[in-house]
Design goal:
transmembrane; HTTM-like; two-stranded antiparallel ribbon; membrane; transmembrane helix; HTTM-like domain-containing protein
């Protein structure tokens, strides 16, 4: 490996290298299986209601901007069923690791159409963006095996893109709160209303402590605005701590008001150093990363 290649693969040499800091391919192999196997769960459980859009009058269809730009067809019963089963079958095939570019691209396109069908009837969720980005970048990496701990710049760029999107999901959520709700959002009764509508035995008691819910709104807003600090996380221990914190937050929200962003939580799992699971296996190769590995 030449000196130029060493400089390009060494993490932290330049600010711009943050986007291409090499990531072991084993991390991609594990996360790819998690992401693709989540899709059947999402299709048949999390977003099972999308199937009902096949029976909705066509005049209720208000296509998203991307659907208008691409001239996507109005959903019909046949289209919805075909997309549903093609997506599930493609995701199961992609989880095997075979043909990662072709099958991965098919999964991304089909899931994108599934989301267009889901969100073009007046409700748009913001918990899908990071997961969609993950599906978009996974096909760019190429083959990745569980025992392959070689560092890859292509994998590093893909995981950096997902991390940035996870961060922006929180930061832009805070921005939207202030943009549309103004400072009435943190000073109002947002969480009180949520507990009244969707509260559980674990959260109903907070209604007797209005100051607690008001404080929680401020804490939530501040933490979301501080989300860019995620990009400073580097060590494996810090990554694990960040994931535990984020997943703990979402579990707490679910326990309190039965709202959880499952696709976003799956995207968060990309932050974990999954290559540690490959530690019990011998390395695929002891050689330094090649151009082919960096290019995917």
């Amino acid at each position: 490996m030449t000196a130029t290649e060493q400089q390009r693969t060494a993490p932290g040499r330049r600010t711009g290298d943050w986007w291409f800091r090499p990531v072991p391919l084993a991390r991609i192999a594990v996360f790819r299986v998690i992401a693709y196997l989540f899709i059947p769960i999402d299709v048949f459980l999390t977003t099972a209601w999308v199937r009902a859009h096949a029976d909705v009058p066509s005049e209720w269809y208000q296509p998203l901007l991307v659907a208008r730009l691409l001239h996507l067809p109005t959903p019909t019963e046949t289209l919805v069923v075909v997309v549903q089963w093609a997506l599930v079958l493609a995701a199961l095939a992609a989880a095997s690791g075979r043909a990662p570019g072709l099958l991965g691209a098919a999964v991304f396109l089909l899931y994108g159409e599934w989301m267009v069908i889901a969100m073009s009837y007046g409700k748009v969720d913001h918990d899908r963006i990071a997961f969609l980005v993950a599906l978009a970048v996974l096909p760019t990496i190429g083959r990745a095996r569980f025992r392959d701990r070689r560092p890859s710049e292509a994998a590093g760029w893909a995981m950096a893109a997902v991390l940035v999107t996870v961060m922006l999901t929180y930061f832009l959520a805070a921005w939207a709160k202030i943009r549309f709700g103004g400072w009435d959002w943190p000073t109002g009764s947002t969480l009180t209303r949520a507990v009244l509508r969707r509260g559980t035995d674990l959260s109903d008691w907070t209604l007797e402590l209005p100051w607690l819910l008001g404080t929680a709104q401020w804490v939530m807003l501040v933490l979301e605005f501080l989300a860019p600090l995620m990009l400073l996380v580097r060590s494996d221990r810090a990554r694990i701590g960040l994931v535990l914190f984020l997943l703990g937050f979402h579990l707490m929200v679910y326990a309190g008001v039965t709202i959880i962003f499952l696709p976003h939580c799956v995207a968060i799992l990309s932050i974990l150093p999954w290559e540690r699971l490959a530690g019990r296996f011998p390395r695929t190769t002891a050689a330094a990363p090649s151009r082919a590995v960096r290019a995917g």
